[in-house]
Amino acid sequence: MTAITLSSSLDPDVQRVGRELIGEVLRACDPGVLVRGAVDFDLFDSPTHVLAFGKASAGMARACAQGLEDRFAGGIVLCPDAMIPESRDQRVRYFGVDHPSPTARNVEATKSLVEYARSIPSTDACIVCISGGGSAHLCSPRSGVTLEQIVQTTKALNASGATIHELNQARRSLETLKAGGLADLLAGTQRCSAVVLSDVLGDDLSTIASGPMVNPAHLVEHTIVGNHMTALDASVRFLNARGCMVGFHTGMVSGDSSEQGRILAERFMDSDKSACVIAGETTVDTAGATGIGGPCIEMAISCALALAESGDLDWVCIGLATDGIDGPTDAAGGILTGEMMTSLVNQQVARKLLADHNTLAFLDTIGGTIRTGPTGTNLNDLCLVVPRGVFLG
Fold first, then answer.
1. Secondary element (H or E) of residue 255
2. Who's near 168: CB < 8 A, 6+ residues apart?
């Protein structure tokens, strides 16, 4: 279970319920649970190999190995270092890789995955586990393209607030395994299926991890086992169980993080104080700013500031990145209350640090930071605002 660390200065009741809500959401987003609940492993009647990459790869691969039982023939997993298990199946080779920009070790890990894929006998099957972060993890530059070119392209697009669609379109033009390249390698296997944990609004298979198994010449069955709605639905269930009416919720939020935070505040003020929940993937255009913050943190602070400026202080606002890493920070998001924003000085500081995209410093100062470390899943971002009294029960 992911350890959820909150500031000791945060109100104890807010800590307790906030930790319960975050825990409920992360349990619902557990990749092993989602894979076991959606994949029919009885369809695989021959020795079956597993290739996995992305932030949820370790949990997805482990669930596949368990589901296949004695038909599991081995595999390769590319994942964050923190997700490599201490006790591991000796039939599986794990490679620690980096995100959001690929590194030399990502390229070397990908070479090992390619070699393994080429070695799979034609009488065997293969399951490919794909999750968000996979575009950076699975990195095989085209001839004449350097790793540095890929890195600089990635950094420039991230800094400009590019969408995941725009980012992965650029990656596809620079690398060999994107846009169905991996499907080409596996075309000779007896059966090949892709299991997907989607971090893309609309679940566009050609965009998730840049579509390595989407190839019109080699049609591959894709099973989407979870997406951003998984996190949103879990949060709504939690609130309903506490007797909190959810007046508005949507899972299709994108665009500028601060703007979406302000819109969430407006929804809350117009909803007769019922809870409002949004999920999706927002972006931050840093425009050269050097501060440290992330989309979830900016969304939550922007929402809190708008509510405080309106004079409303009776609420709790939570922003959560389900992968545990909000942008370039070491934080998973933030919890803010009306009490934190009562001070005009805090409002002024929040306004300034939002403009500078230096929002992590503000959260740390007021005691609102959520830290989980990598969670082993990746189902986008969640932000909600709830009347304080109802939230605390």
1. strand 246-256
2. 135, 178, 207, 209, 210, 211
CA angle, corner 12, sides to 341 and 296, nearest 5? 50
Asked if residue 302 lies in contact with residue 362, where contact means CB atoms within 8 angstroms, the answer is no
Residue 325, SS3 per DSSP: coil
Report the CATH fold assignment for 5-28+229-392.
glycerate kinase, domain 1 (3.40.1480)
Residue ranges of alpha helices (H) inside the chain are 12-28, 31-38, 57-68, 104-119, 134-137, 147-159, 164-174, 181-185, 228-241, 257-269, 295-309, 344-355, 359-366, 388-392
In one letter, which amino acid is 270?
A: D
CA-CA distance, 13 to 33, in Å (whole number)? 29
How far apart are the C-alpha atoms of 310 and 233, rounded to whole Å?
29
| Cβ pair 295, 323 in contact under 8 A | no
Q: Is the peptide bond before 295 cis (omega within 30 degrees of 0)?
A: no
Given the candidates 1.20.1250.20, 3.40.50.10180, 3.40.50.620, 3.40.50.1370, the CATH classification of the domain at 39-226 is 3.40.50.10180
Q: Per-residue pLDDT for the chain (393 aa), expressed as one digit of tens each?
A: 689 999 999 999 999 999 999 999 999 999 999 999 999 999 999 999 999 999 999 999 999 999 999 999 999 999 999 999 988 889 999 999 999 889 999 999 999 999 999 999 999 999 999 999 999 999 999 999 999 998 888 778 777 777 777 877 777 778 999 989 999 999 999 999 999 999 999 999 999 999 999 999 999 999 999 999 999 999 999 999 999 999 999 999 999 999 999 999 999 999 887 999 999 999 888 776 778 989 999 999 999 999 999 998 999 999 999 999 998 899 999 999 999 999 999 999 999 999 999 999 999 999 999 999 999 999 999 999 999 998 998
